[in-house]
Structures are given as C-alpha cells and as structure tokens.
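assembly run, all chains below
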Amino acid sequence: MELYAAMTTTPTTRFYRPDPVPSEVLHRILDAARHAPSGGNRQGWRVVVVTDAALRRKLRDLYLPPWREYVERLVARAGGRRSRSLERSDEFAEHLHDVPVHLVVCVDVGALTITDDELGRPSIVGGASIYPFVQNILLGCRNEGLGAAITTMLCRREPEVKDLLAIPPEYAMACLLAVGYADEDRRPSKISRRDVSEIAFRDTFDGGPFEA
Ligand SMILES: Cc1cc2nc3c(=O)[nH]c(=O)nc-3n(C[C@H](O)[C@H](O)[C@H](O)COP(=O)(O)O)c2cc1C
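ok done. output:
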C-alpha cells in the first residue's frame, strides 16, 4: 500500500470480524515494525501476542472497570450526553475479547531515554522510545488489510496484566493493540483531524501558519 494512503486511512477500528489472523501476517508486521527508532537504539520493546480466548477475556475483564469509570466522568462532563463515537468505543470495550488478537506492547523502563524528567511536568520523551514502534504496527496492519485499535486504558491495571501474562518486573505496559479484520460495514469512512495550518507554524509558534 502506498505510504501516504496508509497514513491517511488508518482509523481506530472498533468492529471486527471473528476470522483469525494468520501468524505469518502478524510476524511480517512485527518484522517491519521493529525498524522503528528508539532513544540510543535500545529497542526496549517487547510484544506479547495474545490469541488465547481465555486470556483475551481476562484482559477484557480488566479493561472494563477503568473504561467504565472513564465513560462515567466523560458523560458527567458532557451533561449526560453520550456521543456516537463514545457509543462505538463502549461497544468495542464490551466486545474486546472477541477481537482475535491482542498485542500487549511493553517496554523495558531501563531502556527509555528520558531527557525531560526534571522540568516539573509529566515526561513526554520516555514514550518516544516505544510509540514509534506502535505506530509502525498500526501502519503494518493497514498494509496487510487488518484493522487495529491502540488502547491505553488497560495500563491502569498494569500489575494485573503483568501477572496474567508473566511480564517481568522491569517492563512497563505501553498499550494493548486490538488487531483483526475489520467489519467493513462499520468501518469509519473518514478520519477527522486538524488542518496543517492549525498545527504547524513558520519559524516561531506565533509566526503564523506554515504553508506550502
Ligand atoms: C495514546 C492513545 C491511547 C488510546 N487509548 C484508547 C483506549 O484506551 N480505548 C479506546 O477505545 N481508544 C483509545 N484510543 C483511540 C482514540 O480514542 C482514537 O485514536 C481517537 O478517538 C481518534 O479516532 P480515530 O483514530 O478513529 O480517528 C487511544 C489512542 C491513543 C493515540
């Protein structure tokens, strides 16, 4: 698939067909994704490829409580209104165990290059040694005709997830990627994102929109 076409047509897939995903396909995606950059080229990423149905159900069961808390807060803030996108995400959460593959992406915390930990705000840089790898997986899935969803809600339950999947203590959970063939009838037809003129500026932040 042409790169820009993949980049601009990779929404979060919320609805999946039950068809299994061949291991060769998943392996090909990971083999390409592992070429991502990481601070100092430490490559601290590890992936647990979960296809076992009982484990997927346990992951869904762990996912639901923090997800429901999040939804409650969101709905309260919106004066009781539930958006269509929230409804879709909620249905996805309830059916997470039905998605054929859960990729649990972890990272060796000691391998993160963190250069912004003394600035009195949450660190951003640590994540940069793992999420380029995750984005590569998302694009690889798209290239293989697979849908995927990046989720981080389960990171709130990291201790339980580590126990369940025998993840060693030095690793942190970066995300759970749901992967499978999309239910094409319910695939989003467009992706809503800000225009370049709203996010890129010429020379200084107040230098006006960066234009071609
Ligand atoms: C860092 C990150 C964490 C996310 N965590 C979740 C999550 O826990 N659950 C979920 O349903 N979606 C999650 N998403 C998906 C976003 O909700 C989604 O990307 C956003 O709503 C835009 O939707 P679209 O990609 O379909 O355009 C996450 C996305 C990112 C980038």
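The first strand starts at residue 45 and ends at 50.

Helices lie at 3-8, 23-33, 53-77, 84-94, 131-143, 158-165, 196-199.

not gonna interpret more than that til we talk
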